[in-house]
Amino acid sequence: MTVVQPLKTKIQPILLSGLILVYLSAICLLHWLRLAHLMDGFDLAFYRQAIWNTGQGHFLTVSGTDFSPSLLGTDVILIYALLAPFYWLIPSAMTLLVLETLVVAAGAIPVYWLARDRLKNRWWALSLAATYLLLPAVQNGNLYELRERMLGGSFLLFAFYWWQKGRLGWFAIAAILALCCRPENGLVLIMLGVYGWLEDRHRLAEKAGWRYIAGPVILGAVWLGLALVIISQVSRGGYALGSTFAGGSPVAAITTLFTNPGLGFQQLFPTGSALWGKLLYIPFLLLPFGFLPLFQPRLLLITLPPVGLNLLAGNRRDLQWNAFDYHYQAAVMPWLMVATIFAIERLIRKPPGWLAWVRGSQLVGLVLTLTLAINLATNLMSIASLDLSKAGVPPVKNGWAKILTAKTEPRWESGRALLKMVPETGSLAISNVWANEVAPRSGLWYFAERPLYSIHPAQDAQYIFSDLHSDDPQLIQKVMASGDWQEIGRQNDYLLLKRIR
Q1: pLDDT of residue 315
Q2: What does pLDDT average to over the chain?
Q3: Which residues of 440-474 are buried (b: 16+ CB within 10 A; e: fewer)?
Q4: DSSP label of 471
Q5: Stated pTM of the model
């Protein structure tokens, strides 16, 4: 069976631009609504502070963590430094969210290019680009505050496109940008080199053969090693996400399986909904793609690092194996998208006998329909409060339906009025969702004793803003009993304290 020849018309690139513009406009509007409805947590303010501090000459400095004074001591997230000039021009949280959305939306471009080149049909390519933009993991990851993983996912798509075209210079640029987003993307690049060696050994005989294979491996390994050294030098003995892994770290999660098998399996494979969630994680990842990536098992090797890290998470971190929500699938989606394109190419060129009746248009239509259906179903389930998590079905908490049905609370105006009493330079410990209501400053803490952030948020703050509806009452009582604070405002269960000694 021959592949349909490319159309001569240029309408598809124009329609692709339209799809990207619609996505950009819709997601940015939803971001604006999230901010207006206090749906973004402290993470957005945390990264915004690092970007603001960089513009002030303090490179990626943060105050909210005990284990590191900088993002260099958490996960070496350099991409936020690159956003600092844009923030300096327009100092707003929306500036950062628009930039993130623009990069994520641009990921549809290499999807279109790759599908166009491989399938020789621009309409199919356009449909698969639309599929990328409709993926729940893409949309909901994009909508969940400000996330460098989502930026990295788009850069990985560009990197792969240029890599398989043999344009190693452009590949290096995109790959380095992906590495600036997350150091563990180095593991992804290493697996890309392994895939290249398994799939295209004949390129070793070509002029750029060894660079094509070894380039991603060397780049990924060097960056990952350098990042680990930087983290060890900058951090104060902690590990940013150590508490999220079974056993306290990815290495411990694996080694415990051998040193204490009973405990190791209990940590990794708990009972109840967490067990079902892990068992169904990979099937749910493949579901929007109609399980077509299974026809490209070598490409799926590239997904092993991010999928493995997600499955190594402890039983309280179910958001990491949520295939439809949050941002932890950002380094998985690019390869499932690529594998789907390659699988469709394979099935229309050399279909197995039991699939000889299948046409390329049917496969493309299946993927697009499944993705749209899952997008609608998960969002509608979220507003209907239909919780199937005990059966292993991951809930969606950051989708468009949840945002569009959010309601404004009149009491919020009381909170905003109290915050006006805090000087712009005043160091502040603040309730989770209220952190984005204040301007960045050198001292900002999440008013909660949590391992990931400061376990003593009131220690260095000059002011405390607390929502008594949501904050830990024991923490509030401890602060009030210390005698170090004076109440200077209270409205509608919002409390503002000022340090007196």
Answers
A1: 74
A2: 90
A3: bbebbbbbbeeebbbeebbeebebbbbbeeebeee
A4: S
A5: 0.92
